[in-house]
Amino acid sequence: MDGDTRYSIGDLARLTGLTVKAIRFYSDSGIVPPTDRSPAGYRRYGTEAVARLDLVRTLRELGLDLPTIRKVVDRQMSLAEVAAAHAEVLAVRIRTLRLRRAVLTAVAKRGSTPEDVELMHKLARLSHDERRRLVDEFLDSVFGGLDDPAFAGIRVSMTPVLPDDAEAEQVEAWVELAELSQDADFRATIRRMAQQHAAERVDAGGTVVRREAIALVRDEAGPAMAAGIDPTSPRAEPVVSAVTARYADAAGRRDSVALRRDLLVRVVAANDSRRERYGQLLSVINGWSVGESLAPALDWFTEALRARLPR
Q1: Which of 165, 168, 171, 246 is least buried, going by the fewest C-beta atoms within 10 A?
Q2: 260: how many CB neighbours lie within 10 A of its CB?
Q3: What is the pTM of this model?
Q4: DSSP letters for 190-218
Q5: For residue 13, what pLDDT band results from cuts at 50, 70 and 90?
Q6: Greater confidence, 271 or 203?
Q7: Structural domains of the chain in order of their starting residue, each with its CATH number
Q8: At 219, which helix (H) or strand (E)?
Q9: What is residue 228's predicted lDDT score, i.e. its pLDDT?
Q10: Count of CB atoms situated within 10 Å of the CB of 142
Q11: CA atoms of 125 and 119, how far apart (whole Å)
């Protein structure tokens, strides 16, 4: 095939797989102009028209508009520039579609009211800075004004960071977490836990000692529960005593009914299902592995401890 070869519109249609109508449209638009005309006045095209039409079809399939395509084929814009700009546009569209899918999935699962749907949509559309302000406001309401150096690290560990290329499940988790963070009762519950944590801090020679009650329960009650020990049976007594003894030692107190009541309050508060749900959602958003639920061990110990407290 040499440079003098001329094609009719019908020839181009057979070579490219495009319709005659489409080729005529591109020709009329100036994207694939004819090289010349036949003696009878029919448009004729050179070999470069085949390459142009292949490029046009590819760019159209990628979603580029005709004015942009014309700039590319006329070399007013480089293909790399166009590709980069279009990729960014597609990225925005993909993020938007993920947000919509997340909201619709949540609505389908929860049977939400129209008001809930509107709120979820607003939460899903928040910018990065708006999301950060919402989370900071929640954490300020929980930890603000409490004097404990540990809270700085705890705040970081409770901060969701939704990636720009978030998957649908991450967006869905963000919407649920954002809703949860606005729950006044949930905020009050976490605030009480933080206040108790700060109040129980013991300064021993400059070293801050904290009673990790939940870790103690997990370490002792978990194996007992797994072994099938009835929490109200005598076999559970050594487990309860081990937890309360370690808790009392860390608190600098003696094991007593008062200490056990304090421990029960703390365990019950920590076993709030919303607190665990927050942690699960946080793990999904941040791409962390979701830890094993502590609820069964906390339930077991709560029943065991209550059975040993005076009515």
Answers
A1: 165
A2: 20
A3: 0.63
A4: HHHHHHHHHHT-EEETTEEE---HHHHHH
A5: very high
A6: 271
A7: 9-69 (1.10.1660.10), 128-306 (no CATH)
A8: helix 213-226
A9: 96
A10: 22
A11: 10
**DSSP string computed for 139-195:** HHHHHTT---THHHHHHHHT-----TT--HHHHHHHHHHHHHHT-HHHHHHHHHHHH
Q: Tell me what pLDDT residue 257 has.
A: 96
Q: Which residue has the tokens 């929980």?
A: 142
Within 10 Å of residue 127's Cβ, how many Cβ atoms? 8
Which of 45, 60, 55 lies closest to 12 in space, CA to CA?
A: 45
What are the backbone dihedrals phi and psi of residue 7, each rounded to the nearest 5 degrees, phi first?
A: -120, 145
Question: How high is the pLDDT of residue 201?
Answer: 62
| pLDDT tier for residue 205 given thresholds of 50, 70 and 90 | very low
The burial class, CB within 10 Å (0-12 / 13-18 / 19+), for 88 is exposed
pLDDT at 82 exceeding the cut of 60: yes
HSE of 286, CA atoms in CB hemisphere, 13 A? 16
Of 146 and 232, which is predicted with more confidence? 232
Q: Which residue carries 């609820």 as its tokens? A: 295
- Rounded CA-CA distance 169/172 in Å is 5
| Residue 215 burial (CB count, 10 A) | 11
Mean confidence (pLDDT) of the chain: 85
- Is residue 200 within 8 A of residue 190, CB to CB? The reply is no
> Looking at beta carbons, which pairs linking 285-291 to residues 24 or more positions away fall under 8 Å?
285/160, 285/161, 285/162, 285/166, 285/170, 285/173, 285/174, 285/177, 286/160, 286/161, 287/163, 287/170
CA angle 47, 53, 59 (to 5 degrees): 145
Q: What is the pLDDT of residue 209?
A: 38
